[in-house]
TrEMBL record:
Keyword RNA-binding among UniProt keywords: no
Annotated keywords: Isomerase, Pyridoxal phosphate
Domain Alanine racemase C-terminal: 261-391
Function: Catalyzes the interconversion of L-alanine and D-alanine. May also act on other amino acids.
Residues forming the catalytic site: K52 (proton acceptor), Y282 (proton acceptor)
Protein name as it appears in the record: Alanine racemase
Record flagged with keyword Lipid biosynthesis: no
Sequence similarity: Belongs to the alanine racemase family.
Coiled coil residues, start to end: none
Length: 406
């Protein structure tokens, strides 16, 4: 990563032998492991790895490559711009983008061979783009089976299918897929999933009667992939699971056979002795109970750490401490609990906010509980100011390629 300066450019990467001041470390072997685990659960259905929102904050291009290496057949994103970035990186796998506005660049999607989700209103715009590009568009028709977001209403499904088939007969598009999205699959006891599945089967029958012969029918998300094999059809769309996080309140990642891929860490930037009653951070809502040592952790809500997550865990030198006082834009504080630590070589010690939890350390789920949110949000919101550091990435340099061929 480089940042422009008034006198030119400088590299933001650390020098030889130095450590990143702060980083989100992404273990691509964990991504591969998780994709294989989900592929086993989905078989014989294929896997679409969902890498929208910069792969839930993990880095879309490296994660997409790792997912494909591990057996994913498709990639999925929300926006066409995300799909085009993957194509620009040389990724040519089947790729679906499904959330559009009237300003979306359908022409660029058609030209790049990106499949386009279609809820109805987009159809004429997609066809116009196909005419302009002189190339048939590939579309997936989406139906709203109960989530209440995008997707055609069931009452208008017949009309959408009919119009799409007319355009297909004209050679302007190909109906590649039919899909919908589940609302409560992360709560397996709820009956709405059965209702949505029944509706999906009904609309598939309508499409089949109209002559649609899709390559893929897809409904299942990560929780349904793991708990509802009757929703798998031809393809499952897995997002959270490939990042090693559990979608279920009552089951951990480890219990599901998943490995969290992101570790958020930094270095203690100050360590100082304070007296009894010392206030901490804006508002002084926390005061020390006796003489103590405060550790300054140089990340905050500008780095994507929720401001509301006071009490979130930070591990320093093998012990986990809660954040005290308000989380600020760039920093937060942990109370190390006793005097005498300021001289104990903790300045510059690694501070881990969350990781895979394998050694009992803090996890994204712990931060989600502290912030009153979900683990999806914790990893996705880590800002670009925090450099991503990828480990277990396959060497793609020309030299490495030559070595592999020799």
């Amino acid at each position: 990563m480089t940042y422009p300066a008034t006198t030119g450019e400088f590299s933001a990467a650390p020098g030889h032998g130095s450590r990143y001041e702060r980083s989100a470390v992404i273990d691509l072997d964990a991504i591969r492991h998780n994709v294989r685990r989900l592929a086993d659960a989905a078989s014989p259905a294929k896997v679409m790895a969902v890498v929208k929102a910069d792969a839930y904050g993990h880095g879309a291009v490296p994660v997409a490559r790792a997912a494909l290496e591990a057996g994913a057949s498709w990639l999925g994103v929300a926006h066409i711009s995300e799909a085009l970035a993957l194509r620009a990186a040389g990724i040519d796998a089947p790729l679906l983008a499904w959330l559009h506005t009237t300003e979306s660049n359908f022409g660029a999607a058609v030209a790049a061979g990106v499949d386009i989700g279609c809820s109805g209103w987009e159809l004429d715009r997609i066809v116009a783009a196909a005419r302009e590009q002189e190339r048939p568009a590939r579309i997936h028709l989406k139906v709203d089976t109960g989530l209440g977001r995008n997707g055609a209403a069931v009452d208008s499904w017949d009309q959408l299918v009919g119009e799409a088939m007319d355009y297909q007969d004209q050679g302007l598009l190909r109906v590649v897929g039919i899909f919908s999205h589940l609302a409560v699959a992360d709560e397996p006891e709820r009956p709405e999933t059965d209702q949505q599945l029944a509706t999906f089967r009904e609309v598939l029958a309508v499409a089949e009667d109209a002559g649609v012969d899709p390559e893929v029918r897809h409904l299942a998300n990560t929780p349904a992939t793991l708990s509802r094999p009757d929703t798998h059809f031809d393809l499952v769309r897995v997002g959270l699971g490939i990042y090693g996080l559990s979608p279920f309140a009552g089951q951990s990642s480890a219990e599901l056979g998943l490995r969290p891929a992101m570790t958020l860490r930094t270095l203690v930037s100050q360590c100082k002795e304070v007296p009894d009653g010392q206030g901490v951070s804006y508002g002084l809502h926390y005061r020390t109970q006796g003489d103590s040592t405060l550790g300054l952790i140089p990340v905050g809500y500008a780095d994507g750490v929720p401001r509301s997550a006071t009490g979130g865990p930070v591990r320093v030198a093998g012990r986990t401490y809660p954040v005290v006082g308000r989380i600020a834009m760039d920093q937060m504080v942990v109370d190390l609990g006793r005097a005498g630590l300021a001289g104990a070589d903790l300045l510059g010690a690694e501070a881990e906010l969350f990781g895979d939890g394998a050694d009992g350390g803090p996890t994204a789920d712990d931060w989600a509980r502290a912030a009153g949110t979900i683990n999806y949000e914790i990893v996705t919101r880590i800002s670009p100011r925090v450099p991503r550091r990828f480990i277990n990435e396959k060497d793609r340099s020309p030299k490495a390629s030559q070595e592999k061929l020799s």
